[in-house]
Amino acid sequence: MAVPFYMAGMEICMNKKKKKFVSYAKWGYIFLIPFFAVYIVFSLIPLISTFYNSFFENYMVGLMQVGPKFVGFDNYKAILFNGDTLLYLKNTMIMWLMGFIPQILISLLLASWFTDLRLRLKCTGFFKTIIYMPNLIMASAFAMLFYAIFADQGPINNMLNSMGLPTYRFLAEVAGARGLIALMNFLMWFGNTTIILMAAIMGVDPCLFEAARIDGANSRQIFGKITLPLIKPILAYTLITSLIGGIQMFDVPQILTNGNGNPDRTSMTVIMYLNKHLYSKNYGMAGALSVILFIVTAVLSIFVFNYITKDMEAAGIRKAKKKKAKEAK
């Protein structure tokens, strides 16, 4: 029996399509290879090496190398039972909070203003660019700028003297040094936080705001009852990333205090303490301190994330129960 011409043509086309079929899955894995290669070389291997070195006594005394000698958890004990570690961790958290609290408050305020269509703000693109620009400046350059401005003979003290006020030694006072470090961290990061929170607020369905206004809710109630609960995941992300950055605070206080944490080590951070061990080539102690910081950061991040998102999870469970109850009826 002869096969119709159009059937033969369809069969030829299907055979061609089968031959031209390409498995895109393998290309996805191929494109992932560079990422995993960079991650293994620059992150995973150094991480494993840090854990390994933390169990060894390994340092320099003049030109003589001591170790590496396996000492178990002795490096960890020396750090944990050393009062300096807790002091430097306390300094770090104080300076981080001094910068983060105004940062999140002002960022929320600016994000709500820029995303409120009723205000009809003009030149918002210009203002967004201006507030984000400090984030593009290197922290070292920022620290040198503040060091020059707030020096004993700097412009700020010259202005105070012209007003008949005495010279205030910012870098010689605890409040002054910590305040400058917190101010620099605030100025460098509040623009980035504002942009992130703006994106979060713009992702909220505008119908919810309109419905609330129709029901008579004012701006404060809308912000507290609708905006904040719906952007909690982004707030959690912002808080966790800022916390990690705060614990890793190094460049600004290092340059501003010349690595000494003046006055009287009140602005010395944990990473500056770690840097001193690395500078003295005490790799065992530096590795142990790095591991402790890794554990502290992980625990704090998990705690913050669970605390912020627990209400959302509870709401999701309640919705699921209500849905099941309706289906059962």
Automatic annotation (TrEMBL):
SUPFAM superfamilies: MetI-like
Domain called ABC transmembrane type-1: residue spans: 89-304
Keyword Zinc: no
Similarity field: Belongs to the binding-protein-dependent transport system permease family.
Bilayer topology annotation: Multi-pass membrane protein
Domain of life: Bacteria
Keywords from the named record: Cell membrane, Membrane, Plasmid, Sugar transport, Transmembrane, Transmembrane helix, Transport
PROSITE patterns membership: ABC_TM1
Pfam families per record: BPD_transp_1
Predominant cellular place of this UniProt entry's protein: membrane
Cellular localisation: Cell membrane
One of the GO BP terms on file: transmembrane transport
Transmembrane domains' residue ranges: 27-52, 93-114, 126-150, 186-209, 230-250, 283-308
Signal peptide (residue range): none
Gene3D superfamilies recorded: MetI-like
One term under GO cellular component: plasma membrane
Descriptive protein name: Multiple sugar transport system permease protein
